[in-house]
Design goal:
single chain, 380 residues, Rossmann fold, Nucleotidyltransferase, domain 5, 8-stranded mixed β-sheet, 14 strands
């Protein structure tokens, strides 16, 4: 949809208005530069594939921009670096997957300040919806025009095998309503966490951290249909507050590869310990991890209580304002989706909130497990 809209601006009967000698400019904004290049520009529904054969834009990689034969320019920007949008001016903009932008509010604000060329600057924003403040703000604006579409309307372009094995299992589920039907889901009644709670606890930077852990919730199988391997990084400050730093969860990987991903996070954050639940993997989990890095500080944890019993004390820490989520650090959106969908009914025990499980283990170690640090006694 976004590519066709841009194509209409460039090739349509009423092209963008620009002063003589000054080409019209269209901002392309993605979550990351790679997303912009691989999806918005070169994807199957990207700008280069949607163009007429004789009017295909040239991608100038060194300058990160598309240039059409009629001179229209489309610079590519990343929401990971919102300051890129400070200064440049545009006639129009296409922002893709805005609900996953790492710095959504700041990126959108900077983009708006630069939409000031021509008689009618405008923006097209495409996304799978999530109940985030930026999307709610945009939907509430009187000048916003909303067009919705479902995955089923695009079925003719989806491989039958993919539809049967990946799409169909999510029909009728809460995640399916969001990802397939395009619905914005509000807070779940009875959920342990709410969006409002998490928004109040966000910070731009963590305090000085005295201890950092990487918690791992290993999957019991591999392959595209397997549960994800939850990998969450959190730290504890001297004042007793914890900070969730990153969600490095991976899915469908072999034990060696998900263990490598966990160790990558351990090294990147200079963590003090890697924690892994071993109810299903037993000693194999530690064996795989130590085959890659024998020196890692590792601790196995066993789930002797159910998920609900483990999650409640951690949710209480949030209610007390003792846990913060760091903005723009490590893509916490999907983790927060699991948190805000997790209730205390019995179905919570049979679901697999892998990211949430890892979060619970991390915060339990940092805040709810008595430290057994060595002590020095004076002998009289």
């Amino acid at each position: 949809m976004g590519a066709e809209w841009v194509r209409g601006l460039v090739e349509g009967p009423t092209p963008l208005s620009a002063p003589p000698g000054a080409p019209a400019r269209i901002a392309l904004v993605a979550d990351t530069e790679n997303d912009g290049r691989d999806v918005m520009i070169d994807g199957e529904s990207g700008l280069r594939h949607c163009a007429w054969p004789g009017f295909r834009p040239d991608y100038q990689a060194s300058r990160r921009r598309l240039v059409w034969p009629n001179g229209v320019i489309a610079p590519l920007y990343s929401a990971a670096e919102p300051d890129q949008l400070r200064g440049p001016q545009h006639h129009a903009a296409w922002g893709d997957e805005i609900a996953k932008w790492a710095n959504g509010a700041e990126t959108w604000a900077n983009l708006q300040f630069g939409l000031r060329l021509g008689p009618a600057p405008r923006a097209m924003l495409t996304t799978t919806p999530r109940p985030i403040p930026l999307l709610a703000e945009l939907l509430a604006r009187p000048d916003t025009v909303v067009t919705r579409g479902t995955t089923f309307e695009n079925r003719s372009n989806i491989a039958a095998v993919f539809f049967d094995q990946v799409i169909r299992p999510y029909q009728g589920t809460r995640l399916g309503r969001q990802e397939l039907m395009g619905e914005i889901l509000e807070d779940v009644p009875g959920a342990l966490w709410t969006r409002a709670m998490l928004d109040e606890l966000r910070v731009d930077e963590p305090a000085a951290l005295e201890r950092i852990v990487v918690a791992v919730d290993p999957p019991v199988s591999t392959g595209s249909g397997a549960d994800a391997c939850g990998i969450v990084v959190a730290g504890l400050a001297a004042d007793g507050r914890a900070y969730v730093l990153a969600d490095r969860t991976v899915q469908g990987l072999s034990p060696h590869r998900w263990a490598s991903a966990a160790l990558d996070a351990y090294r990147a954050f200079e963590a003090d310990r890697l924690i892994a639940e071993v109810n299903n993997g037993g000693d194999l989990v530690e064996t795989v991890i130590r085959q890659i890095d024998p020196t890692v500080s590792y601790r196995a944890v066993h789930a002797s209580r159910g998920k609900r019993a483990r999650a409640e004390p951690v949710a209480a820490l949030y209610e007390q304002g003792r846990v913060h989520h760091v903005r723009g650090a490590g893509a916490l959106e999907t983790l927060e989706d699991q948190m805000c969908a997790y209730t205390l009914d019995r179905t919570a025990e049979i679901t697999s909130p892998d990211r949430l499980d890892a979060l619970v283990w991390a915060l339990t170690d940092l805040m709810l497990t008595p430290r057994r640090d060595p002590r020095v006694r004076r002998l009289d």
